[in-house]
Amino acid sequence: MDNTRGHKVAVVTGASQGIGAGLVGAYRKLGYAVVATSRGIAPSQDPEVLTVQGDISDRATAERVVAAGVERFGRIDTLVNNAGIFLSKPFTDFTEEDYDAVLGVNVAGFFRITQLAIAQMLTQGGGHVVQITTSLVEQPDSRVPSVLASLSKGGLQAATKALAIEYAARGIRSNAVALGTIKTPMHPEEHHAALAGLHPVGRMGEIGDITDAVLYLENAPFVTGVVLPVDGGQTAGH
Q1: What pLDDT was estimated at residue 228?
Q2: How far is residue 229's CA from residue 238's CA, in Å, rounded to a whole number?
Q3: Considering the entire predicted model, what is its pTM?
Q4: Can you tell me the distance from the alpha carbon of 158 to that of 121, in angstroms, rounded to the nearest whole number?
Q5: Cα–Cα separations (whole angstroms), residue 21 to 49, 111, 214
Q6: What is the DSSP string of 6-59?
Q7: For residue 178, what pLDDT is reported?
Q8: List of the chain residues with pLDDT < 70
Q9: Is the CB of residue 1 less than 8 Å from the CB of residue 33?
């Protein structure tokens, strides 16, 4: 791709289905080229979508994704840390395997690719990092016990603000979107009615609700360090 045309480039993790796939489409509609990564992502027919297979909890995947994006498109303007594992269990039922899997993807997966992306953004004079988190961090719900989600995604929300302040004077913004429960392939149809009832507005979120929020942040140059709840009112109360 010829970057003299002024294309920007977004990297999206967890990009093969659900919210991640929606984000790839949303950034393409915005005119961005996209580097899309997940464990099982298939090659794209779109020449301005580069897919990279790999486990984001592995540092080598992060390094391949950023290097491939810079090699193909010449720059990285936005990173959306969308990959995540969510497990709801009573706290004492979590296993070592659960801990390693959730922290590996949600924290280690965020850490290395964000370091590499920000290093590239610094050479360009700016950029934007977005974390996808959960409203359960701020508004735990006894019906959805989720300490590992709070431990990992709460860390990302704190890091979102820390990054925003560290890089505010160097043109790099950092924001997060805190989700309610969204209709994705992760949630079987038979659970939808119960999941809708967790939200004060009485419905689950749609993928478009999330992509709209991310694109708002993308196009909001005066907004940084924000955790934006898109959760059907969950953060406000019950």
Answers
A1: 98
A2: 15
A3: 0.95
A4: 21
A5: 11, 22, 13
A6: ---EEEEES-SSHHHHHHHHHHHHTT-EEEEEETTPPPPSSTTEEEEE--TTSH
A7: 97
A8: 1-6
A9: yes
Handedness of CA 17, 149, 137, 93 (dihedral sign): positive
Record: fold of 3-229: Rossmann fold (3.40.50)
Q: What is the mean pLDDT of the chain?
A: 95
What's residue 4's pLDDT? 38
User: Is residue 75 within 8 Å of residue 119, measured between CB atoms?
Assistant: no
Bridge partner list, 178: 133, 229
Structure tokens at 228: 């934006």
Which token pair is 183? 């209709």
The domain spans of the chain are: 3-229
Dihedral (CA of 19, 5, 129, 10) sign: positive
Tokens of 99: 């801990």
- Residue-level pLDDT at 208: 97
Q: What pLDDT score does 6 carry?
A: 54
